[in-house]
Amino acid sequence: MKAVQKARISPDSAFAVQHLHAPHFDPNWHFHAEYQLFVVLQGTGTRFIGDHVEPFSPGDLVFTGPDLPHLWRSDPEYFEGDRSRQTEGVVIYFHEDLLGPALLSKNEALRIRQLLNRSRRGIRFTGHTQLEAARRMEALPALRDFDRVLALLQLLDLLSHSESCHLLAGAGYTNALKAEDTERMNSVHAYVMQHFREKISLEAAAALANMTPTSFSRYFRTHANKTFSDFLSEIRIGYACKLLLEKEMDVAQIAYESGFQTLSNFNKQFRDLTSYSPLAYRRAYAESGYPGTNRNTMQ
Q: Using CA atoms, how far apart are residues 223 and 205, in angstroms rounded to an integer?
């Protein structure tokens, strides 16, 4: 599982758009030179953008800039071979030279220029913007010739005027990954996503990376911008958020199902990450879906 650096856009095309249907989304932590717009039409799981982690569900729409590591990791049940469970989405790739420096430097392109700059931290769109942008993205693969280009430009203009958006990666996040790092981080991500409901030790994670626990701790903090313990807590709390909104389970049951050994620790970690108690979170977001788990990313 190595970093995907291949060309995603044909040399004779202005950009690329794909309507994805698969048992699960690409499970590899990766980055690439293109800007990327991705909307989830079907499927649930955990989304990683730089140092940001939160659950995703249908309607999730995110814009990422060049070389920003990302991963939409489908929930474990999507890897179990159930053919009735599928994922679906639309993804768009384009280079900055789609517009060209001559246009981007002009006043008329100021909002687009600002949008592209903000995308380097990843942007999640919500509300009316998300609904309208998702509709346009679903229609885009059927368009041909210059109509496709016009539709993409209009989509970017829509996003550039939106106030219903949230920056994802931290302001100080920088991509320190190399190809060999993504392979190592993929191993850790895959292991955590498979076993987060069980007890996971730092020693076990370090062994996957072929490192000592001390070296792994330093390595993980450098590349993830957080400790391994914090990363594991975010995964568990994200899963707990999903259970709170989708299942009729009591809080204690959700805590243990999410990998926490004590209810008190679960309640503390949940409040630290979401600013809510579990029951208050359920009441606040039962109808609107996943609001995210990292309060520091709301802009």
A: 15
Residues 29, 107: one domain? yes
Strand 61-64 to 123-125 pairing: antiparallel
Q: Provide the b/e sequence for 244-274 (b: ≥16 CB within 10 Å).
A: bbeeeeebeebbeebbbeeeeebbebbeebb
pLDDT in tens, the chain (299 residues): 344 444 578 888 899 999 999 999 998 888 899 999 999 999 999 999 999 999 999 999 999 999 999 999 999 889 988 888 899 999 999 998 888 888 888 899 899 999 999 999 999 999 999 999 999 999 999 999 999 999 999 999 999 999 999 999 998 888 877 767 778 888 888 899 889 999 999 999 999 889 999 999 999 998 888 999 999 999 999 899 989 988 889 999 999 999 999 999 999 999 999 899 999 999 888 766 666 555 433 33
Q: For residues 52 and 5, is the Cβ–Cβ distance under 8 A?
A: no
Residues 204 and 151 both lie in one domain: no
Residues 56/46, Cβ–Cβ less than 8 Å: yes
Whether residues 28 and 150 share a domain: the answer is yes
With tokens 């885009």, the residue in question is: 140
Global pTM reads 0.83
Q: How many CA atoms lie within 13 A of 225 on its CB side?
A: 16
Structural domain containing residue 270: 196-297
Q: Residue 54: which CATH number? A: 2.60.120.280
